[in-house]
# Entry
Amino acid sequence: MRALAAVRAGGIGDVLLCTPGLRAVKRRDPSCRITFHTDCPELLRGLPYIDEVRPTGEAPAAAVFLAYEDTIPPRGHLARRMAEGLSVAVRDVVPDCAIRADLVARYRAAWGAGPNLVVQRRASRHTPNKDWPMARWNALLDRLSRRWQVIEIGQASMDAGPEAGVAPGGRYRDLRGRTGIGELVAAVAAADGFVGPVSGPAHIAAAARRPAVVILGGYEAAENTAYPTQHTLAATPPCSPCWLRTQCPHGLACLTAISVEAVAAAVERALAGAAARGGDRTVLAEWTTAEAAG
# Structure
């Protein structure tokens, strides 16, 4: 039996992007003992192909660091770039995630019949150029919550600002700042759909086979994070994909090109597609790149 130690620091999305490669290693060599080092152990404990999950700080010097940042902008799906560090080729890029069934059941019981949409407005403080304008988020939440129940997740402090406190009409629950990692995963898995930027919850939605509407803009390419359950709204001006961490010199033209109407229409298509295929656990047959103007 040989052993593999791999490591990936960082957030939820980057960790989940490692799972297709690790899965492929175990399929190629079932006797290989895989230890994965991460800052988010709750995401992976219990997955059948990872033998042990340990903290990032305990990674040995010889551990394989999984990354896609060697070439920016990266080409192809980021899960495939991660897998290259393990010397495996990945066809199935859909990630896996440990999901607590008891928490999923608790959220579904609390929320009622639905449809229930989980929404996240902001990706992270490190990627401000993924942020769709707040005024459009407020208009979208008001519109969605008049038809479906909206459950908002994320960090409460990230949405501070003069417009952040605008309460949408209709059915709305605010879980911002109120979930640990396990609860966040369960909330996304319990929902009938997800709406937000490319972020940890978007990858969780893919792992949970939930239909998702991803407001991509032009920070990265659609091919980097596309999944079968995902409807992607992208705009591709000449400056995209930029992967720019400093202030956008173009006023986030790629994101302001995406209308509230386009996002709302994508949500309707995503939910209708899931219902037509059997609802709760059905995977959509294909992902769609919607035009920005809708």
Confidence is low (pLDDT under 50) at residues 279-294. The first helix runs from residue 12 to 17.
